[in-house]
Amino acid sequence: MQLPATFLWGGATADFQFEGGYQDGGRGLSTHDFETDGNVSQPRRNTLRLADGSCAEARSHFFNPENIPEGAVPCLVDGQYYPSHKAVDHYHRYKEDISLLAGMGMNVYRFSICWSRIFPTGDEETPNEDGLKFYDAILDELEKHHMEPLITIHHDELPLHLALQYDGWSSRTTIDRYLKYCAVLFDRYGKRCKYWITFNEINAVRGFAACGTHRCDDQTHYNAVHNMFLASAGAVKLGHEMMPGSMFGAMYAMSELYPATCKPEDVFCRLQKRRETYYFVDTMARGYYPSYAASLLDRRGVTLHTQPGDDAILAAGQLDFISFSYYRSNIVSTKTKMNVLGGDQNPYLEVTPWGWTIDPLGLRFLLNELYDRYQKPLFVVENGLGAVDDPDESGVVQDDYRINYLRDHLRAVMEAVLTDGIPCLGYTMWAPIDLVSLGTGEMKKRYGFIYVDMDDKGNGTLERRKKKSYDWMKNVIATNGGVLWEE
Ligand code: BGP
Fold this sequence. Notes:
Elements: E1 8-12, H1 15-18, E2 45-49, E3 55-59, E4 73-74, H2 83-86, H3 90-103, E5 108-112, H4 115-118, H5 129-144, E6 148-152, H6 160-166, H7 173-189, E7 195-197, H8 207-211, H9 218-242, E8 247-253, E9 256-259, H10 264-286, H11 293-299, H12 310-316, E10 321-325, E11 329-332, H13 360-374, E12 378-382, H14 400-419, E13 424-430, E14 450-452, E15 464-466, H15 468-478
Parallel strand pairs: 1-5, 1-13, 5-6, 6-7, 7-8, 8-10, 9-11, 10-12, 12-13
Antiparallel strand pairs: 2-3, 2-4, 14-15
Helix pairs in contact: 3-5, 7-9, 9-12, 13-14
The chain binds 6-O-phosphono-beta-D-galactopyranose.
6-O-phosphono-beta-D-galactopyranose binds next to loops.
């Protein structure tokens, strides 16, 4: 059993978790630059200065953020560690990093562009040439190693100024700024990049760091989402015009969801909860809001502020492929208290130290479910195991647990493609080189094939070292998955 030679094998990263260099090359401040470190029991915070000059904090936890108080502005506090500032210094080590990925035989690399490197405030008329040159250099390296780029335009952050001036995505002005940014990217990189993702995990982002909005309530949030839908559709249309043959996806956090029991009420509850995610995919893939949107918004007390012409914009910007992250699955019943990805833990599955269940069959299930629903090619753009990796006496991480996780999930992808007939463009593992965790800001939640010598507070040499899984994955790629069936 082997995947076709055209299958794209690679890894995925995000700029504020990977690059660092937060003041280099004329980069402006981004909404993530004010996020502290954290851990499983201590959520990350945004540090703030209140109108009276005193300091405060608001929880910036990805799935459960708090409002930023009226008049407060994010500020940097002396002595506080902010992981995005240095991250793992990819900004200065990109040549070594890309060459390590190429050494595994990867033929695609998913990375995000930092908006505030290109437009430091978002309001400038002309882009920042140094920022553009940084991504020219990344693309040069990829070309040298015959790797296809897959670019995420918006990975959960925006220039700080757009958040302070316009309240981020709650304003239509941000749509214009985003489309100006897209036009610059398409013009500069369009000849070198075919695959684009307009927004990362658009169904999971909320609040200040990810959306630039000071408020997190449903009314603010769903209107911000409407603006992001319009921005994504506008980008797809513009991209198709400027780059014939280009392909656009948006990216969704797609943990699978099962009914906790076969009680009809629980099964129906699963349908309703699942629609909270499909609300995003349906609208962007089909180009119009689904039939259940009105009741979903009504239940949440939301009134959408639409304008004449919005329907036509959505219709003209349908996605070409559906990309998603898949890490785990959850169960749901009428008793479940949910956040966006949540649900209860499935007693039949093992969990990681971060409480994420391990469910490879859920990935095959999801690939089938998505293709049945949309009939568009799929792209698994994030999947991987966050684990504590301790190097042995010789300095090597013997990460058999990661190998097991990836083997089982890749077999699930292969079965979906080869047995179930699902078109899947590729698989980019999160994250091939250790980087800062989005959810907790930790370093010790590691995903990579390549170890980075750095701890939770940014101490370490930043040296890169191959883990055991590096050569294992190299062999998987070299055989287009064939070796997975010999083990
Ligand atoms: C997704 C994000 C990534 C990434 C990943 C793993 O939500 O798109 O940016 O970080 O999840 O999550 P974490 O870093 O919290 O383990």
